[in-house]
Every structure is written in structure tokens, then in C-alpha cells.
Design brief:
Layout (H helix, E strand, L loop, with lengths): L4 H4 L1 H21 L3 E5 L5 E4 L1 H7 L23 H4 L11 E6 L5 E12 L6 E9 L1 H18 L6 H13 L3 E8 L1 E12 L2 E2 L4 E3 L14 E3 L3 H4 L4 H5 L4 E8 L5 E9 L6 H44 L6 H9 L10 H14 L5 E4 L6 H11 L7 E5 L8 H6 E2 L11 E2 L1 H4 L4 E5 L6 H13 L1 E3 L6 E3 L3 E6 L3 H7 L4 H7 L2 E4 L10 H16 L5 E2 L1 H9 L5 H15 L4 E2 L15 H15 L10 H5 L3 H10 L8
Parallel strand pairs: 13-20, 13-21, 14-17, 17-20, 22-23
Antiparallel strand pairs: 1-2, 1-5, 3-4, 4-5, 6-7, 6-12, 7-8, 7-9, 10-11, 11-12, 15-16, 18-19
Bound molecules: adenosine-5'-triphosphate.
GO biological process, one term: regulation of DNA-templated transcription
Keywords: Activator, ATP-binding, DNA-binding, Nucleotide-binding, Transcription, Transcription regulation
Pfam families: AAA_lid_14, PAS, Sigma54_activat
Length: 636
Amino acid sequence: MRRTPDDAEPGHHTKRLEMEKSRLEAMIRKLGEGIVLVDETHRIAFANPRFADMLGVPFESLANHPTLDTLLPRDQWPSALRDVAQPSDDPQPEERQLTRVDGSTFWVSITATAFRVPGQESVGTLCMFTDVNGRKHREEYLDLLIDIFNRSAGPEFFTDVTRKLARAFGVSISFITECLGDTRSVRTIAFWQNGAPQKNRVYDLKDTACEAVVGRSPVYYGSLVQQLFPKDRELEAAGIESYVGVPLTDSRGTSLGHFALMDTQPFPNRTALLDTLEMIGTRIASEIERNQTEAQLRHQNERLREEIKARQRAVSTANYYRDEITSSYDVHTMIGESPAFRKVLDSIRLVSGTDVTVLVTGETGTGKELVARAIHEASPRAGKPLIKVNCAALPQELIEDELFGHEKGAFTHAQGQRKGRFELADQGTLFLDEIGELSLAAQAKLLRVLQEKEFERVGGSKSIKVDVRLIAATNRDLAAMVREGGFRDDLFYRLEVFPLHIPPLRERMEDIEPLAHFFLRRFARSLGKEFTGIDETSLHMLRNASWPGNIRELENLVHRSAILSPGPSLQIAVPIREAPEKASTLDAVVRNHIVSVLNRVDWQVEGSDGGASILGMNPSTLRSKIKKLGISRPGH
Ligand SMILES: Nc1ncnc2c1ncn2[C@@H]1O[C@H](COP(=O)(O)OP(=O)(O)OP(=O)(O)O)[C@@H](O)[C@H]1O
């Protein structure tokens, strides 16, 4: 029987074993899997280069058997390693994302099993690390795409995206920036580095890798990026090797900022990657744009609120309104300098931009219609019709027909279809003058339209919808009428959304002179006459009249005087009533008389020329009367 060489010499057997071992080691060295044998004290007894590669350390550094925790934090160890006393017969692979010493990450599947070295008592653990980085990234990447395009954006949107970008592409840094006014500097809106969100920062783009991206085009530096941008301190500080950046633009092509991925390793796969990143970029950009639009809207709202507040504060500030009003409608048609009248102008200005219903109150001739017109002209409805209904002039039985129109044959004389005032005012403003004169039945009908915002023509069944802004006016005390049952309270509250009271002329004496001059200029022109002004005695008379007919009365008086006056200065030829004709109560007569006397004496109560002595009263009695009747000096 021939002997095999092994049997021949015992030394030869050992040699063969040695050879087998080195062949095995050579094979293990070349394996695509990372192999590591860890002893009981967690020292690395043996490892292959692929293991070192996966952990991002030089293979030589393993030669002096470091403990595993110097390379890999314990929480990333497979459970078999953490619990060596309980070796499993059926080791299960566990997936872990390794954080390498340089901060970058790497996905592996680890299978670990107890390993007894033949002939030795000690038990070690043999671990096999399989590279699942590619698969994991594809999964993360899919997850990223689904999430980024499906999720509704919230405050965490940008940070979430940077986290997912970093994980999906396995890079150590990912961030998104926003331009600061131009494309010279940017602010990060999310910055993810080494598995955690970082504080945002503002930085100058000059000489950085990002400079060629913002406002321009995508860039890709697969490796050696530090050498390309030696002045970019960030790259150096983080040990960056590769960089990919994509510009972000809004829907009109304006530059918004950019986003970038950076890694400490070279970055492969250029073209497919850029396409994907650009697609993700459109989603990020639309989110930035939406945020910016929202911020702008918020800002505009705040400014508007501030503006309204400022105007309310400035009600009594001299000269404030002139420019404001000129800009919105013809100031020359509305004359008045008194603080009381400025308040009216202020209210017009405040309310004209809105669609709210306005109730204009004031004595006859104070300018209610003019105010309604001014509100309409200054409103967005200016180019549309302003339709007036004089409720006092309408026979009650025709009100419905007038407001809502009728269909052909609705009543005996209805020969054709006719549109009512509501329909004519569509898109515009409906001005209901003398609203206090509406019958209760007509009030009910009006209320119904205001509530339902639609109506039918008389004799028709089709509902008509209109978009009408309502302005109502009255010289009656509607609140008192409500109390007395002459006016529906529900209608009153609907009309009185924005009450605008025009004070009578006697409460704003400062306005008399400018108004008189204004009317004089106007009539002189139409009469073809020239006047140098109004003579002193006439002015004195004008100032001391009580003006129960208010501005209309003044206007008529100036008109008549202009016709009769020979010139060159206007003389008021018609005697002015010192007391109102229409004073209905004793208190009103007394009140008007006191006001007109006080006007004549420049509101002096005491003294021989004072109001009290002219009225034959004790000054203190006069004072208490003034108080009781609520008399106050105009403009004070
Ligand atoms: N501030 C003003 N500046 C210039 N003209 C004015 C002013 N206010 C009113 N007027 C003029 O006075 C006249 C009466 O105004 P308007 O008809 O608007 O008053 P009203 O309060 O509606 O009167 P009524 O209660 O009698 O209907 C009009 O000719 C109007 O142009």
C-alpha cells in the first residue's frame, strides 16, 4: 500500500495545515463580505480588508488588534456580539447602519456566530458583514421620493427632506438654502450633517463650491472637490471629497436658492443622479415659493392693519387727509377743513375699500348723497353703476316694482319685462336715500333681499342673484324709530354695520367760508361773472347764521347772491334766518338760538358782550343749559 506524503512525516502534516490556513486567509481576504473574528475581550483577532473598508479604517490599523468599540459604537454591534454568553445555533442577519469614524454611514447586514478556536477554551464571535448599502439606499430613495412628493408640507418639511436626502444617497451632509435678496449670499433653511440637524447659517457664496450653482445650473464634483475650491473652509473643515448641487428657482424662473449633497467619499453615478436631484429640486422650490408667498401675505395683512390703525390715530392730525383723499377721488368736490369734517373723510377712506353696508346719517343738506358718491367712487366698484333710490319719493305700492323689477304681464300695465334697481346696480352700489321713509311692508321685503342675497322680479319665479354694495342714508333718528316701532330692528342692525354721521354745518363753522368761496367760484364761472371775493359784512353774516338747511342752504344762498350781486365782491343780498324754520321741539329752538348767539360772541359766555347777557341769563344758568342741551363749540 502506498503511503500518502501526509502519512510519511508528521512535520509535513503541520506544514500542509499551515498552507491550508494561508490559502483560507487569502480567500477570506478577497471576499466581498467583511469578516471579523472578535475574541472574548472584544479584541479583533482577525479581520479582512473588506471589513476595514466597510468601517472606513486602514487595514493596517487592525494589525495590532484594537478592541471593536474603538471602531464601532456598541449600539451598532450585532446582538450576538453583545451577548457572547448566549451563542445562537441559528444566527439571524441583522441590518445596521454603521457610522464610520469620519462620520459617513454605511448599511450592512451582519451575521454573527460564536466561534470556538479548535484546541482552545476561549469563545470568540465570528461576524460576517454583507454590503446592503446599495439596496438600502434604493429603499430609502424610494421612500424619499414617495414622501417628498406626497406629504403635505409642515414646519419640519425642509429638515425632513435633508435627513432623507442624506440617508437615501448615503452622504454625510445635505442642506437647502434660500437667497438673501440677490445671489451673492444665502441662508440655509435646513442643514443635516452626520445624522443630525444643524443650526442654520448665512454664508457668502464667493469662492465656494455653491457659487456656480445658485442662480445658474446643477454641478457635480465626484471627487477632489477641496482641490477645486481651496478657499472653501467648509469643505476643508468637514473633510469633503465630493459635492453635488442643484439650483432652486420659482415658477417664474427667479432664483430661490439651492440644495446640495456633500460626502467624505467619492460620489459615483453622475447623470442619473442629477436628473433625480433636479426633480426633487422642483418640489423643494415649490415649497419655498409657497412659504414666501404666505409670508408676503402675512406681511401685507399686518401692514394693512397698521395702516388702518395709523389712520384712526391720525383722525385729528391737521392736513393729513388732504393728500390721502386727493389720491382716491376728487377732493374739490368735498370741501371742509374742520376736524368734524375730517372725521367724515377719514370714515369714507376707511370704508371705501370694503364691501360693508354704510348708514349715512345727518340733517338735510349736510351732504349725505355726496358722501355716498364719494364712497362709491373710491371703492373698487368705481367703474360700475351707482344707482339711487329715493325711498321718500316712491309711492309705497311701487317700491317692490322699483327695487326688484317685473316680468311682462305682472300687472295690468306691465307691457314688458323691466329690471329693478337692485339688478341695475349689479357689481356696483345701490344708494337707498331717505331709508327712514320706507313703509314697514317695504322694509320686510328689503330685509329679505339683504338676508338671502337674491330676489324675484314681480310676477316672476326665477331667483335673481346680484352683487350689490349697499349705502343707505337718512336724516331721521332710526334708532329712535326702532324704539317707537316705526322701523324694523333687524333691518336697522343690517344697515348700521358702519354708521357714518355727518355733523350739521353749525357744528363745523370753520367750513362755512371755504364752502362759500367754493360755491362762488363755481357759480361765477357758470354765470360768466367775476368776483374778487365775498365782502366782509356778508362773511360776518354767513358766519353767524345757524344754517338749518346746512350746505344746500348755503349753496342756494351763494347762488342767488351771485345772480343779484353787482360785484366785484359778493354781497349776500338775502336776509339770513337766525333761527331754523323747521325746529320741531322747544329744546331744538332753544338750542339753535343759543348756538347762534354764542357764534356771534365768539363763544364768550360771561361779560357785558357775552352770550349770557345777550340772552338775559345768568352765566351759570347758560352753562348748565349748554351742558343739558349737549351744545359744544365747533371744532373744540
Ligand atoms: N363737503 C361738501 N363740499 C362741497 N359741496 C357739498 C359738500 N357737502 C354737500 N355739498 C353740496 O351740498 C348739496 C347738498 O348735499 P347732498 O344732496 O349730498 O345732501 P343730503 O344730505 O343728501 O341732503 P338731503 O338729506 O336733503 O337728501 C349738494 O349740492 C352737494 O354737492
